[in-house]
Design goal:
It is built from 13 helices and no strands. By secondary structure, it is mainly α.
Length: about 300
């Protein structure tokens, strides 16, 4: 019978082997999907910047300091200062929080609603599916930015929404155009799932429609849903920046990358170009990272590519 020390040593060896296999599989995946690894690193850096913003910069991103206006990048201000003397590096770090909050909230809510609606449309079929798809066609006829502009304009005019944070109408404006796009993709996969024997068996056993949709069909369309979800985050970040740049998104004093571009970046493009360069670079890298990561997720979940 093994002693207590032998059991402890065996447990340590097993834990060390598990850790080693995890890192080996991670390195193997990075070698197999180098583009996805680059995207994952960019996403991870964005998350680190958002979480550890107070540690990475001691400056208040909302505090004006007119004595330090238009300071070029230096050791004191790594990315320079804007027209109000605010540290650009600090505002980019805290702006990552706004971008991630809006991006993940809009993507998960819009994608989740689109997932349920798309599966329900495929499950019920018939007249319900026909009417639902025509409604989705109406929404998809408008480009993302146009639909988001219309929704945020309506949301901003509602008296009840004027008392809440400015990011909430932006999230609502991004959710609305995301729902039909997710529902259309999910429905195409759910149509084949509907014909599976286990769905017929669930109907024969008298299960409710909601249980069949949520317990039997939704889990089997998660692959295209996850691909759409990762793509939606990058699109949501870009939409939030576009709305903020146009003055219909996040409002001062909340740090936001699109708001930084709007705040006099054109006026100081020649005298202080860093005011526009670094927020624009942050938006580009964030969207680029999520798109690369989404492509890697698609390749990993695609059975044809996975078998090669």
């Amino acid at each position: 019978m093994p002693t207590t020390s032998e059991v402890a040593v065996a447990a340590d060896i097993e834990e060390l082997t598990a850790k080693r296999s995890f890192w080996q599989s991670l390195v193997r995946t990075a070698r197999k999907q180098p583009v996805g690894a680059v995207g994952a690193v960019l996403v991870l850096l964005m998350v680190i910047a958002a979480v550890f913003a107070p540690v990475l910069s001691s400056y208040d991103p909302t505090a004006n300091n007119f004595a330090d206006m238009h300071q070029p990048p230096s050791w004191e201000h790594l990315l320079g200062t804007d027209q109000f003397g605010r540290d650009i590096f600090a505002r980019i770090l805290y702006g990552a929080r706004t971008a991630l909050f809006v991006g993940f909230a809009a993507s998960f809510i819009g994608g989740g609603v689109g997932l349920v609606l798309g599966v329900s449309s495929a499950y019920f079929g018939g007249r319900f599916d026909l009417i639902f798809q025509r409604v989705m066609d109406v929404f998809m006829a408008f480009p993302l930015i146009i639909m988001a502009l219309a929704v945020v304009s309506i949301a901003s005019s509602i008296e009840m929404l004027k008392e809440i944070p400015s990011s909430v109408p932006v999230i609502i404006a991004i959710i609305v155009p995301f729902i039909p796009r997710c529902a259309r993709v999910v429905r195409s996969s759910a149509l084949s799932v509907r014909e599976m024997p286990y769905v017929d068996a669930a109907r024969a056993n008298g299960f409710s429609h909601s249980r069949i949709v949520l317990r039997h069909m939704v889990p089997n369309v998660m692959a295209p849903f996850l691909i759409m979800l990762t793509a939606f985050v990058g699109q949501a970040i870009l939409l939030e920046a576009s709305l903020s740049y146009l003055g219909l998104g996040v409002q001062e004093p909340t740090p936001a990358w699109g708001l930084m571009l709007r705040g006099g970046a054109e006026e100081y493009a020649l005298s202080a170009p860093w005011i526009a360069i670094f927020p624009g670079l942050a938006i580009t890298l964030a969207v680029f990272g999520f798109n690369l990561f989404g492509d890697a997720v698609r390749d990993a979940l695609d059975p044809k590519l996975r078998s090669q």
